[in-house]
Amino acid sequence: ISNPDSIAEKVLEHHIAQQTQIPFVGFWGVGDKPLPDRRDNEYIAELNSIRESVQSQYEPGASIALILADLHGQFNGFIPNVEDNRSSSYLYQISKILAEQDIRPIWLRGLYEAHSLQLPNINDRIDYFSEAGEVYAKYSKQYVRSAERHHQHEETIISLDS
């Protein structure tokens, strides 16, 4: 878990001082699953357990929101088109289950639209002298291994070491 500058503690302090719900936000990925399975339901039950534990110790409790990776799935070749939330039956079903459990589903596509963001072009060159380029250079082997596992397009993943 990454917690630069103790941001988690600062968020907790803020919400406790304000006597408001503590927000938990996560990211729900997408792969080649056609529909949710037992493991998905167990994970959602675990999230509810965490929320209940917080509620038992802190009266305002916690809220949970999960960002659904529709655009991420499209970028990596798992979802052909995300113009309609139903383009991934798996994520659409997950969104329904989350809503039924009072966990807020947030579509990544909606965040991109709300903030006028565009998907990167997989053919664009990396500016290795930028801050992002330095991070990429430091972790490129890890990124390439992850990309090879998660990318479904025909193109070859190229690393700095190639």
Mean of all residue-level pLDDT scores: 81
Please count the helical segments. 6
Number of β-strand runs: 3
Order of helices and strands: HEHEHHEHH
Classify the secondary structure makeup into a structural class.
mainly alpha
What is the overall shape? Answer: globular
**Biggest beta-sheet profile:** 3 strands, parallel
Query: Which strand order spans the largest sheet, edge to edge or round the barrel?
Result: 1-2-3
Strand content: 5-15%
Radius of gyration using CA atoms only: 18 Å
Distance between the termini: 30 Å
Helix content: 40-55%
Low-confidence parts: 155-162
Describe the 3D structure:
The protein has 162 residues and is mainly α. 48% of the residues lie in helices and 11% in strands. The protein contains six helices and three strands. The chain has helices at residues 7-18, 38-57, 70-75, 89-100, 108-114, 131-150, and strands spanning 22-28, 62-68, 104-107. A three-stranded parallel beta sheet has the order 1-2-3. Strand 1 (22-28), helix 2 (38-57) and strand 2 form a beta-alpha-beta unit. The longest helix has 20 residues, at 38-57.
SSE inventory with pairings:
Blueprint: H1 7-18, E1 22-28, H2 38-57, E2 62-68, H3 70-75, H4 89-100, E3 104-107, H5 108-114, H6 131-150
Parallel strand pairs: 1-2, 2-3
What attributes does this structure have?
162 residues; mainly alpha; 6 helices; 11% strand; disordered C terminus
